[in-house]
């Protein structure tokens, strides 16, 4: 089985190193695209 795209969820800098240490060799092995995702919540501005 071949993975076409691998998505790596990157929550913080320390987590990113650990996740990428695993994801990069997998992407190389399966000749896959590697996509890194990081999201942050934004405060909602309240107006009165």
Class by SSE composition: alpha+beta
Q: Describe the strand arrangement of the main beta sheet, using strand numbers.
A: 1-2
Helix content: 25-40%
Integer-rounded radius of gyration = 15 Å
Averaged pLDDT: 92
Main sheet overview: 2 strands, parallel
Q: What's the shape? A: elongated
Number of strands: 2
Helix count from the secondary structure assignment: 1
Detail the poorly predicted runs. Answer: none
Strand content: 15-25%
Cα separation of the termini: 56 Å
- One letter per element, helices H and strands E, the order comes to EHE
Outline of the structure:
With 48 residues, the protein is of the alpha+beta class. The protein is 38% helix and 21% strand. Strands 1-2 form a two-stranded parallel ribbon.
Which SSEs are present, and which pair or pack?
Layout: E1 5-9, H1 13-30, E2 33-37
Parallel strand pairs: 1-2
Could you describe the 3D structure shown?
It contains one helix and two strands. It has 48 residues and is an alpha+beta fold. It has a domain at 5-37. It has a two-stranded parallel sheet with strand order 1-2. It is elongated. 2% of the residues are buried.
Give structural attributes.
48 residues; two-stranded parallel sheet; 2 strands; 38% helix; elongated
